[in-house]
């Protein structure tokens, strides 16, 4: 793993990726933040040694380096999922590369379904805690202790100071920002009515198919982490209708300007 990380990092450094401070992972339908960045370098995933390749049509496949609000950032335009056939180590490999390049903070976005029916589609949720239902750990491999503490503490995986800043920014800009628990499942199938009931009983406020593996690895690497979900649908088991993926993408796009405001205003303060 160390050899693979070194090869990927050296390739990106040769392409001009110089000591970014902040890493950003853009979730489903949330690619427009790229337009706010002064791009200095970029690399397609399929050109980066040892990188997985995005296979989902609405996920681009580029790592972008540039300046956003005066800070050097490296941005994943498109992420990887277990449901694409990747291992948890593959899914989280880019986080290890971003850390090796120099980031100390990781900001994550995703699209998710609202389990808490007080939350409505088109609104945002700040992730305060999570439930890992992906059936494994990205830290469960031989040699992980060479990269960080094997028994990584997860008592507070999301940075309280950054979350507090996000809440202040949302209030100042009249953006509805709930705070809750995100459950991460494998997918790619959507949940059944019984599964939505189970997730509610477990204490989930939203459900998605990403994010948690990256958060675990970021904590393993002692990065400051925060994550925001765009709620793209409402998961009411008593009134469940078939999900239209194009509607989910459209809803993510509708909420995206608020997400961009949150991320840009936060980065100013980091």
Automatic annotation (TrEMBL):
Pathway: Purine metabolism; purine nucleoside salvage. Pfam families: PNP_UDP_1. The keyword Transferase applies. Belongs to the PNP/MTAP phosphorylase family. Its EC number is 2.4.2.1. One of its GO terms (cellular component) is cytoplasm. Signal peptide: none annotated. One of its GO terms (molecular function) is purine-nucleoside phosphorylase activity. One of its GO terms (biological process) is nucleoside metabolic process. It is an enzyme of class 2 (transferase). It comes from the Bacteria. PANTHER family: METHYLTHIOADENOSINE/PURINE NUCLEOSIDE PHOSPHORYLASE, PURINE NUCLEOSIDE PHOSPHORYLASE-RELATED. Residues 21-268 form the Nucleoside phosphorylase domain. The keyword Lipid metabolism does not apply. InterPro entries: Nucleoside_phosphorylase_d, Nucleoside_phosphorylase_sf, Purine_phosphorylase. Gene3D superfamilies: Nucleoside phosphorylase domain. This is Purine nucleoside phosphorylase.
